[in-house]
């Protein structure tokens, strides 16, 4: 009898072999050799991680308990492969063209890169995956314990062995599952190793089966007789359970993270599906071929009460065929380990990409450079995730006590993970599917699964018996295992029916009711019409002919010198066999990195993809390229804005300079005018005062006359100074207004009498006093000053024989308009624009004004919130004064 | 011998003061208060001396002087220019235009008389 220690040694040797195979495969793939690594055979074999220890051992147990029902677990995937391979091809095409890394990534990508959705799927997958991992650990422990019972002297300790198995698997998954981070996420080492394990488990099961049929039963004929005699042979087809289980296993085959990993992510060529479509069902057929014979013989041979789940081991052992038992053990071990490794890899990718990285990135915000060692962070996150997932599986196993509850976990997990199906299939075939729909559907299905299957399955610990019996709050229609009062159903059938149908309904309804974002629409179109605009992706390798194109492209981007240096260095690194380097994946990766420094990562990837043709350009790539172009456009438009700003500033400076020059000229001209106005009267005063002082014998008449001139000129000076001060106060805005109320009529009365006082009264003023009864609320003195000025001007400048001034007033919408028109020859058109300027005088100023009067009027009217304008077309000189009836502060 | 001065000045009071001073000195004083036709008046009056204000209505004294110096027979005519603007730029302009003497208002009567005497003496000597 083989001792347990030998078993452990064989086991270790097997593990070392697996490590070796994985290592060698990785090396070969990295070197660009080993085309068989990407063969349809390896792909098909890798798909067989569908058959876990649960299938390896459990199928026989299932057959022993429930007859042929175990077949459903094989029928589901077979149906998918045979009748829905075109759907799988779409899935694979989408997965490759969108460069998805996991099923969570695919769902998130389809629904507008929603991370919420990715997190939901990840949590669902981890919840479903953890008990499944525990189940595999249990199978390894159980199988060990069979040998331990037979050999008590062995080194076997149950608790520690599970720990070491879990740790070993974690190390394997970390070593080969997180080796590289390339965008395709393919792991040749792992895939090759699990393909080997698939061969081993099939071989082991077939060997046990052959032994049972020919070694124990004595040939096919007697075996058939035994089966017919056994209960298992009776076809007990419960239509509900069969349909449910076939559907469930089919759904799980598509949705399980580990299946997605090998089927889509690790797929090297979608043509492989064609082979897998017949080869994988064949594999399943072979796997199931001897299940019934082993079960029948086991039931016959083994004592009552022995665990039928372990017949695969115990039957050979009981017949003394230890080596066969050991082979069978290795087969079961293979099933368990391959499943655990791929599951851990797939889950860790999801956990690190959708849970850890978003959190890490958000903590990095603001600290500047994120680009530096993201790669290391991602790898570390994956490694830690693998360890954590393995630890979860381990603790779940320890806490559940490894009891029979685990055995049913397989189907429970299937039911949970199947909740992804509506969102996945809907996303592939229905453009109207939206993020909201997917979220609502998933949530509904997920909650129903927990409520109707997971919680009741855990016994009275998490959900009380009264709830189970009578529903929550004694609402009978909410009883977890009889929703809406439909009783008597198998719990599994009940759950699958309700959760998936309500999930689908919720998904469809919410999709119809919600509006997708533009990105969702775009992604939806990309997914649903994936065959219209993508070529079948091949590997990311190319021929030397493509190297020339790559060289030309690189020269364009990097410049001739650096491009040649880069390619030369590559040639030397590859051994220098030709002028141009082989486009190996490693070289292409380095080239992409080199180019991305110049044109951005997405553009570089898209450009190389165009030439090597291995990968179609995904929407994500296009969007990223668009982003980069947008950034450049943004940058260049910023430059344009800057340059526009600069020229605007320059123009403003020029304008300011011109204005300053103008102001300076105006000031000079003003000063020179003031000087003139001051010096002129002073000249007369000085001349006549000197004459009076120095001249003897001036007549009394002359003396009086000259003194009068001096007096007049002195008054003129005073007037000028008064005007200047007045104007300066008005212009500086420091004038304080003295607002009072009176009628226009009395203001005009005072102005007319004041303006005409002391003069010869040659001017006739015509007024229509009735229209002047307009009440005013303003600075009456200032307004009067304006009127006086206008009347005086008419008096001074009106050149008619009988000078007349007509004053007419009327109010229009809160404003009063007063026109002053004389009957003289008026102001020549070319002078009209400047009459309001300072020192502007038209013709000879016989009246001796300084030319400030109208300038002051203009300033006053501005202060009063009105205006004074020249009124053309009136025959003589005419001015229009307009002001608000009531002065408002805001009018300033 | 009658000395004739033409006074072109638009300020009547200043014109009257200068007329008073020069008349007592023995000058025959003719006044004119408009710039536009000043040159024709000068040509018509053929004075021994012209006193010209800068700020005149119609045409500035500066322009009148420039036009006057263009005329061959008037190139030697002594011109005393008066300005009230008091800017050094005016003096330069006037000298470039060929002024004989430049004076800023207000001036002392002695200053005025001295200038007139000097200008007349120079003119009669040459």
From TrEMBL, chain A:
One of its GO terms (molecular function) is phosphorelay sensor kinase activity. SUPFAM superfamilies: ATPase domain of HSP90 chaperone/DNA topoisomerase II/histidine kinase, Homodimeric domain of signal transducing histidine kinase. Pfam families: HATPase_c, HisKA. Residues 673-887 form the Histidine kinase domain. The chain crosses the membrane at residues 6-29, 41-59, 71-88, 116-135, 161-178, 199-220, 240-260, 280-303, 323-347, 380-399, 405-430, 437-458. It catalyses: ATP + protein L-histidine = ADP + protein N-phospho-L-histidine. InterPro entries: HATPase_C_sf, HATPase_dom, His_kinase_dom, HisK_dim/P_dom, HisK_dim/P_sf, Na/Glc_symporter_sf, Na/solute_symporter, Sensor_HK_Regulatory. Keywords: Coiled coil, Kinase, Membrane, Phosphoprotein, Transferase, Transmembrane, Transmembrane helix, Two-component regulatory system. Residues 636-666 form a coiled coil. It is found in: Membrane. It is an enzyme of class 2 (transferase). GO terms for cellular component: membrane. It is a multi-pass membrane protein. The keyword Phosphoprotein applies. Its EC number is 2.7.13.3. Belongs to the sodium:solute symporter (SSF) (TC 2.A.21) family. This is histidine kinase. It comes from Ruegeria denitrificans. The lineage of its organism: Bacteria, Pseudomonadati, Pseudomonadota, Alphaproteobacteria, Rhodobacterales.
From TrEMBL, chain B:
Residues 4-120 form the Response regulatory domain. One of its GO terms (biological process) is phosphorelay signal transduction system. The keyword Oxidoreductase does not apply. The modification 4-aspartylphosphate is found at residue 53. GO terms for molecular function: DNA binding. Keywords: DNA-binding, Phosphoprotein, Transcription, Transcription regulation, Two-component regulatory system. InterPro entries: Bact_response_regulator, CheY-like_superfamily, Sig_transdc_resp-reg_receiver. It holds the Pfam family Response_reg. This is Transcriptional regulatory protein WalR. It comes from Ruegeria denitrificans.
